[in-house]
Amino acid sequence: MDRHQVSLAGCHDYSRDSVREAVGRTLELLGGVGSIVAPGESVFLKANNVIAASPDTAVVTHPEVMRALVKEFQRITDRVIVGDCPGGPFTRAMLKRVYGKTGLAVVAEETTAELAMDTGVAEVSLPDGKMMKRFTLCKSMMEADHLVSVSKFKTHRYMNVTGPVKNLFGTVPGMTKFSFHSRFEDERDFADLVVDIHLACRPAFHIVDAVEVMQGEGARSGSKRKLGFIAAGRNAFALETLVLELAGLKLEDSRPLKAAIDRGVCPGEGGWFDVLGDDRQNLSIDDFQLPSRNFFSERTLALLTERLSRHFTARPRPLPDVCTGCGRCAEICPRKAITVKNGLAHVDLKSCIRCFCCEELCEYGAIRITTPFFVRTTGS
Ligand code: SF4
Ligand code: SF4
Predict the structure, then answer these.
(1) Are residues 326 and 206 in the same domain?
(2) Which of 348, 310, 305, 303 lies closest to 329, judged by CA?
């Protein structure tokens, strides 16, 4: 494998000037935008806009990062497209709602970048795929001359963390995402699927927004935490390795990265890439919180026996005071384990596979993940 380079720039807030400086520097350190795209070529900047969430929740890629990137790419080409393929129905109405809430619509309007509204799909093949060899993915991302992934680093109960490697799972059209959760229940299989999709997309470049991130019980129920940097690179595995290191985490704390290492598409530990830019020591922390550490053993229990799972596993719990009864969670649940009665969501724990999509996709933050007292106190 060739030696890779990643770039790192401290960025302590989302003010326009700070972000522009940091994004510009990460790109410049790696040869500038002209080394990624040529005049007249199209580039799709894929944000993490998985849900209609405000940027200050630390759930989605911050719009100022997208704005700075659009400006950089527009120096070379006027064919810059911004967007994502959110969870839920892949419709123009859903895209409009998500882009409105995340601030991406305003960025597109103010920069004249094209806002991706195409709900078409395209077939993509990966002959060496481990879990699947053909995928149906978002057409506008696949048909752009260059796909640039602009991820948000944060915790994720299913994959532990989400960042540069998992961001391209967002190329899977809305509801298909949830069917994959049902089809690949074991988190190791799902992590391999994430790696397959990442490889199938053949991204040209990656940027990660790690200025303010979510820690703890992500993807929505955690707490906001400042990491204070933006990083970039052509290799997502190198970039994810760097982010984990700065957050004081181990490589295996990212299930997709662990899967990539196990199957040999990422070398793992060792100096196989250089870090250009700011000093890593000044941007490192050692107290980043992952989701409850007993989650994976709990989930294995859940797969072993339904009866045990009812007593020993984390479970989604709708909050009566917050739930609006909108029914969206019931719509996306891959096991149809949720029903809405009298304006409140109810979860059938016997059918629930603990994918936690409902927690991630509830726009009202009305689903909390709770862990039984016995499990919390024993750490089993
Ligand atoms: S839990 Fe959230 S998504 Fe589900 S019905 Fe309540 S408000 Fe809607
Ligand atoms: S109830 Fe929630 S966690 Fe359980 S299977 Fe449905 S979406 Fe997944």
Answers:
(1) no
(2) 348
